Amino acid sequence: MAAAETTPAPKRIVEIKGLKKRFGANEVLKGIDLEVGAGEVIAIIGKSGSGKSTLLRCVNGLEVFDEGTLAVDGLPLLHGNKAAMRALRQRVGMIFQSFNLFPHLSVGRNVMLAPTLVKKAAAGASGDQARRLLARVGLAEKFDASPDQLSGGQQQRVAIARALAMEPAVLLCDEITSALDPELVGEVLRVVESLAVDGMTLLMVTHEMSFARRVSDRVIFMHQGRVHEMGPPKELFVNPRTPELQQFISSLHD
After folding, report:
1. What is the pLDDT of residues 19-57, one digit of tens each?
2. Residue 247: phi, psi to the nearest 5?
3. How far is 29 from 35, CA to CA, in rounded Å?
4. Were 137 and a residue from 15, 60, 98, 157 both cysteine, which residue would form a disulfide, CB within 3.0 to 4.6 Å?
5. Angstrom distances, CA of residue 46 to CA of 8, 99, 169, 219
């Protein structure tokens, strides 16, 4: 009798064990354990101050954590090792609330900058890639525009293209629509949703609950520096197990 076929588990892209982070006497992360598989979309929700953004900033090395281990695409995060940090940051893309585009560079040059500097990509190759990525986010015609000619939503889409230019293993999104006018939020979320459909590994801190419910494979509810609940979006939003998550969800409808 033939052995039953088993589907191999997806490759782990992010591996976090026992992660703790303090700011002075304030322990912001109190022992986070999390594994994210290739192509998985994770939404992180919770009140302000629950540690959501700090967790993302630890994943890409912007914050030095105090205890635990963290690896991305098999590369351990070693703060004392410049070569290791450089290698890891090439595997992690991050998009922030503010767009942080260089105002003195054209849109195309903003997207080309990191591959040219970090990967030593030839200008022709990085220019072609920038044009492809700008088309990917619906801004093919803006290659030669300057950032101040763009709306906030367009600037954030350029920031997404810039992050994708490094061909990251995981893309971190930290409240990327919170600085946008309401009418511009949809155009950015549509781009992120298309990345999810295409199999990009995403770790997103978001207040857009309907988006999280529609796009994510798992939702993480953080409360007071811990992963308080975690599971499929239907499970968490429809049947929250703890009073803290029940209260958080009810507060969204007030």
Report:
1. 999 999 999 999 999 999 999 999 999 999 999 999 999
2. -65, -40
3. 16
4. 157
5. 32, 23, 25, 10
Please give the Cα distance from 181 to 55 (Å, whole number): 26
Burial class (CB in 10 A: 0-12, 13-18, 19+), 234: exposed
Please check whether residue 95 is in contact with residue 160, taking contact to mean a CB–CB distance below 8 angstroms.
Answer: yes
Residue in the block written with tokens 């990509």: 121
This prediction's pTM: 0.91
State pLDDT tens for residues 67-89.
999 999 998 888 888 888 888 88
CA dihedral 43, 46, 47, 48 (to 10 degrees): -40
Sign of the alpha-carbon torsion through 135, 14, 76, 60 = positive
